[in-house]
Amino acid sequence: MASTSPRTVQLVRDVMTRRPITLDDTTTIRDAAQAMREGDVGDVLVVRDQSVYGILTDRDIVVRSDADGCDPNRTTIGAICSRYLSQVGPDDPIDRAVEVMRETAVRRLPVVDREVLVGIVSLGDLAEARDPRSALSGISSAQPNT
After folding, report:
1. Where are the alpha helices (H) located in 20-144, listed in sequence order?
2. Which of 2, 16, 133, 135 has fewest C-beta within 10 Å?
3. What is d(CA 82, CA 52) in angstroms, rounded to the nearest whole number?
4. How far apart are alpha carbons 77 and 2 in whole angstroms?
């Protein structure tokens, strides 16, 4: 009779990006775009009074700023960021993060532990954890175009 070993549950902490780029909600769009370029990322977490206020993606800059003719030197990221409050904890199973992303139709979630931001988890992170051979995992782990 074959023995079965218990399935190891992967936690969000195992796949999240630690120390994501955070910017105050009063940061200008230009400064945020430069931080994204320097960090080689497509998003930053927006904070207000040391709490997660929202998230700003490169797409937000194009759709909510450039398309509307906002001045990137004067408009703040707090004015254009996505202000969803969905989040997960570092000890949540990755299946919980997948469920939250599916329910809220988002691709990134802040990871918060006792009201302190400790990371961010993306759809790509979860794809790599669940099936490293998947197409999404391959795209997510590829070097960015420069």
Report:
1. 29-39, 58-60, 94-104, 123-130, 135-141
2. 2
3. 11
4. 57
Is 2 a member of any domain? no
For residue 39, what are the domain limits? Answer: 12-141
Q: In the chain, how many domains are there?
A: 1
Separation between Cα atoms, residue 56 and residue 42, nearest integer Å: 8
More confident residue, 84 or 51: 51
Whether residue 143 has pLDDT greater than 90: no
User: Is the pLDDT at 85 greater than 90, yes or no?
Assistant: no
Asked if the structure places residue 104 within a domain, the reply is yes
Asked if pLDDT for residue 67 goes beyond 90, the answer is: no
Is 120 inside any structural domain?
yes
| CA distance linking residue 43 with residue 103, whole number of Å | 21
Question: What are the tens digits of pLDDT across the range 118-139?
Answer: 999 999 999 988 875 554 444 4
Please report, for the domain that includes residue 84, its CATH number.
3.10.580.10
d(CA 54, CA 34): 18
Give the span between the Cα atoms of 69 and 7, in whole angstroms.
Answer: 52
Task: Give the chain's end-to-end CA distance (angstroms, integer).
Answer: 55
